[in-house]
Amino acid sequence: MRATIDLDGLGLDGGGHLLVDRALGGLRPGDELTVTGRHPALRLHLAAWCRERGHGFRDGADDSAGDGGPLVVTKGAATGQRWRDARRAGAANGPPEASADPRWGLAARGALVEAGGPPIGAHWSERDHVWADIAPKLYAAAAASQWDPATAVDWSAPAALPAEVEAAVVQIMTYLVENEQAALIIPARLLSQVHPHYREVMQLLASQAADEARHVEVFTRRGMLTGGPLGTSSAGGRASLQSLLSEPDFTTASFLLSVLGEGTFVDLLRFLHRHAPDPVTADVTRLALRDEARHVAFGVAHTAHTARADPSYLGVLRQAVERRHAALLDTAGLNTEVFDALVLLAAGSWEPAAIEAGWQAVHQLQGQMDEGRRRRLAYIGFPDDEAAELSALHTRNFM
Ligand SMILES: [Fe+2]
Ligand SMILES: [Fe+2]
To answer: Residue 37 Cα, ligand 1 centroid: separation in angstroms?
Structure first.
């Protein structure tokens, strides 16, 4: 088969190779393409380009009408060979594959992947180890609900509280910040080890980390609002959080952080919002609460997905809770200053009757947290009695 392409005045150094390549695309190896054109360096550049691409090149002028004759390219086999071993990395618009090939590396899902190239060193290449069917929807919801700390909170709203109530708010904010920092590090660490084929999970974890970055910011800012120093950070609280950072398994980390920890935090943030003594505290806890609900939703959906695919996984999760409980047995758990600050916030004053009501409100909160954990554990697949047992072993530090 013979074909012809006229480049007119266009040189190969100006994009002419695209036209030649396109014309060759319709030919089989061994077919000839006649190239004509007026560019002064066409002959020279086309000869070099053909050598580089593995095509044959013949100067038509040699055997016919002298200089200015047609140039003939014989299509080589190299282009076809280059893609002979290429495979599609799943389907772009379909669900992700059950197993992602490390050799797909950073290729987009659905791309035709040329063989060779570096494999990706991701820890998690199996769908069931990271996936939840709700992940694409949750990511879309997360992208649509990003808020700007500078404008979403009215930082100028009055916060002239009695000194001790302000100190309680500052103590709680100090505690929240360290929890948020752990909650930021964990999804960031997990996402760096997810095979990018599961891109919605990667995107969702990235937005989760961005959410936590905002929570760190707004809680810090509320803590500093009246210019005083921040509150205390207890060794037991930090030990509890640190035990989350070292969990190597994706599902177990997601379970401990999002199902148990953030699940418990949702109740805490709701409590803080309800008892907020000033508009800024009400705003920052409401905004964080909205984000946390998504984090919990993914943790629960993913853990349930994994446990349904492999029911023996419930045993792994159970052991993780027991292990963490044993490791934290000798620590104090919740910072007593945080507990006292919660009581004072719910009390609203130092009247004995108010303190009694505040104390009861915090105990009620702990009951709600326990109930929420048991409900989520049951959803994942734990029988009710086991769910109650595991909920009781959850850290006293809430997260
Ligand atoms: Fe958070
Ligand atoms: Fe979170």
So the answer is: 64
Domains of the chain: 3-81 (3.30.110.40), 85-121 (no CATH), 127-393 (1.10.620.20)
pLDDT digits (tens, 9 = 90+) for 192-206: 999 999 999 999 999
351 C-alpha to ligand 2 centroid (Å): 35
Distance CA 108, CA 95 (A): 13
For residue 262, report the distance from its CA to the centre of ligand 2, in Å: 6
**pLDDT tens per residue, range 49-70:** 999 999 999 987 655 444 556 8
pTM: 0.89
Lowest mean pLDDT among 93-107, 268-282, 363-377: 93-107
Alpha-carbon radius of gyration of the chain: 31
CA dihedral 392, 233, 266, 307 (to 10 degrees): -50
Q: Residue 351, exposed/middle/buried by CB under 10 A (0-12, 13-18, 19+)?
A: exposed
Whether the Cβ atoms of residue 62 and residue 24 lie closer than 8 Å to each other:
no
Which amino acid belongs to residue 116? G
